[in-house]
TrEMBL record:
Species annotation: Castanea mollissima (Chinese chestnut)
Sugar-modified residues: 111
Post-translational modification as stated in the protein's UniProt record: Contains at least one intrachain disulfide bond essential for its enzymatic activity.
PROSITE patterns: GH16_1 (PS01034), GH16_2 (PS51762)
Major localization class: secreted
Entry protein name: Xyloglucan endotransglucosylase/hydrolase
Superkingdom field: Eukaryota
Endpoints of the signal sequence: 1-26
Single Gene Ontology BP annotation: xyloglucan metabolic process
Lineage: Eukaryota, Viridiplantae, Streptophyta, Embryophyta, Tracheophyta
GO CC field: apoplast
Length: 294
């Protein structure tokens, strides 16, 4: 067919129409995240409402939020790698940048078929981590989606699973104990090869015949978050912000939630750095003496 201005016009209209439909069906993941590695091992499905990350022998994959936050309540529904996931780690965390970065970690350590996942948590303050707590879960995290929440506010950092608190790291800056309070953090997630340590200290390696290993994500929610714009300005302290809608910024655990936290820590916690005397023969980190729920 010979070229003509009318053909060019039709082509432009089709191109614009395709861009419109791509934008209309982009969904929350394309709107909210960028790939930071392994894009070829990721898919966005269900009109943008479902994202998958996969690991094969060549590469893992990961994404990061376009927004960065200074205090936030972040929800994500995640379904973990099914079957033999030994040696894999699916990470879901907030982190700032630089040598003295802050970080709030969920890491899901894979295991052999039939053995439970280990949920590994950690908090980094000003570049210093080593604040690990580990848990078994009271359900199969590969059978369906479950909600994993990071609540980082002025009072504490809370880790929730399906709305149940599993860990609290209180803000004790007034006692000289570091706490993330000013460095903007982005949300990251990734799946990667960690068979040198993830399962039984690295004794169990990845079975690559089971690849690809895929984790799935949906229902991302950062509606309750202070989005960082520049310097100290966030969506929570702009002239138009409504602090009446930001009760989560001062949220603590009520009596019911304290009972749920105790239940999880009594029945499902399998490691607590605050009780590991072999690791800290010279004495535990200072926050452990204030409250042993860290």
């Amino acid at each position: 067919m010979a070229f003509s201005p009318s053909n060019a016009s039709v082509g432009l209209q089709i191109s614009l129409l395709l861009k419109f439909f791509m934008a209309a069906f982009a969904g929350p993941f394309l709107d909210s995240f960028d790939y930071n590695w392994g894009q070829s091992n990721s898919q966005i499905l269900n009109n943008g409402d479902l994202l998958t990350l996969s690991l094969n022998k060549e590469c893992g994959s990961g994404f990061m939020s376009k927004n960065q936050y200074v205090y936030a309540k972040i929800d994500m529904n995640i379904k973990l790698v099914a079957g033999n996931s030994a040696g894999t780690v699916t990470a879901y965390y907030l982190s700032s940048q630089g040598q003295y970065h802050d970080e709030i970690d969920f890491e899901f350590l894979g295991n052999l078929s039939g053995d439970p996942y280990i949920l590994h948590t950690n908090v980094f303050c000003h570049g210093q981590g080593n604040r690990e707590q580990q848990f078994y879960l009271w359900f199969d995290p590969t059978a369906d989606f479950h909600t994993y929440t990071i609540l980082w506010n002025t009072q504490a950092i809370f880790f929730y699973v399906d709305g149940i608190p599993i860990r609290e790291f209180k803000n004790l800056e007034s006692s000289g104990i570091p706490f993330p309070s000013y460095q903007p953090m982005k949300l990251y997630s990734s799946i990667w090869d960690a068979d040198n340590w993830a399962t039984r200290g690295g004794l169990v390696k990845i079975d690559w015949t089971q690849a690809p290993f895929t984790a799935s994500y949906t229902n991302f929610n950062d509606n309750n978050a202070c989005v960082s714009y520049y310097e100290t300005m966030t969506s929570c302290n702009t002239p138009n912000s409504n602090l009446n809608n930001n009760g989560w910024l001062w949220q603590t655990l009520d009596y019911s939630d304290q009972g749920k936290l105790k239940w999880v820590q009594d029945d499902y916690m399998i490691y607590n750095y605050c009780t590991d005397s072999k690791r800290f023969p010279q004495g535990f980190p200072p926050e452990c003496y204030v409250n042993n729920k860290y």
